[in-house]
Write a structure and sequence with these properties.
With about 230 residues, the chain is mainly α. It is built from eight helices and no strands. The chain is globular and about 45 Å long. The model has no long low-confidence stretch (mean pLDDT about 80).
Length: about 230
């Protein structure tokens, strides 16, 4: 449990650090885009190797495929409601958008930590941390641009980090006795939602700001995730 608390707390703290970067810091737009691409590439490889592939090995391709597609569908539907129906610039819509983006990643992290040591989830935890930093920075910067005060933005992101941290820990505890197929389906559901978020939010933003170099940065992120995974013997 101490390992779970430490890993989840560090990953969630990246949201706070990223929002502080977005509110008070500044980077050239192209560098910002390249960092987003790097994080996206790392996260894409991590969910594939640390969530989907093990799920196929412990259950079946059918279970894994169903979970991935279900996660992608649910994320896409919720994302559509936020953007087209509720309005992502409204208070509730904005909070929903921030939380929706973090839930799949933290759910995946919480489930992946079941029965695993910190080194075995190094790739996933490290990739989520890398992803949270630029995503939080971009979101906080956008909120600041809409006229929200720096204090309000920081308070919202801190509360969101605490909520996602609690969700990851709750999922880890509640699913501790779940069967292998159940865990496999949940891991793949989370992976599908993360992949959908990368396709609709992260990579378009990376290309918009980093242009063609975003492709190289994405590949670099995948290599980085592979290197992190090798620390755990993967």
């Amino acid at each position: 449990m101490l390992t779970t608390l430490a890993v989840v707390a560090v990953v969630s703290a990246a949201l706070i650090a990223g929002s502080a970067w977005g509110v008070y810091g500044w980077l050239p737009e192209r560098l910002d885009g390249l960092l987003v691409a790097l994080a996206g590439g790392a996260l894409l490889l991590s969910v594939t190797s640390e969530l989907i592939q093990p799920a196929i090995e412990t259950s079946s391709l059918l279970v894994a495929a169903g979970g991935v597609l279900a996660g992608a569908f649910v994320f896409t539907a919720a994302d559509y409601l936020i953007d087209e129906k509720w309005g992502s610039d409204s208070g509730g819509g904005l909070l929903a958008a921030i939380t929706l983006d973090g839930i799949p990643e933290n759910l995946a992290l919480g489930v992946a930590l079941i029965g695993a040591g910190p080194m075995e989830v190094a790739a996933l935890a490290g990739s989520i941390l890398l992803s949270n930093l630029p995503e939080a920075a971009g979101g906080a910067r956008a909120m600041r641009g809409r006229g929200h005060s720096g204090a309000k933005v920081m308070a919202l992101w801190t509360a969101t980090a605490a909520l996602l941290c609690a969700a990851a820990i709750a999922g880890n505890v509640a699913l501790d006795d779940a069967g292998k197929e159940t865990l496999a389906a949940i891991r793949c559901f989370a992976a599908g939602a993360v992949i959908a978020s990368l396709a609709t939010e992260v990579f378009p933003m990376a290309f918009k700001e980093g242009r063609q170099l975003a492709g190289i940065a994405t590949a670099g992120g995948a290599v980085l995730a592979f290197a992190l995974g090798s620390l755990g013997g993967g």
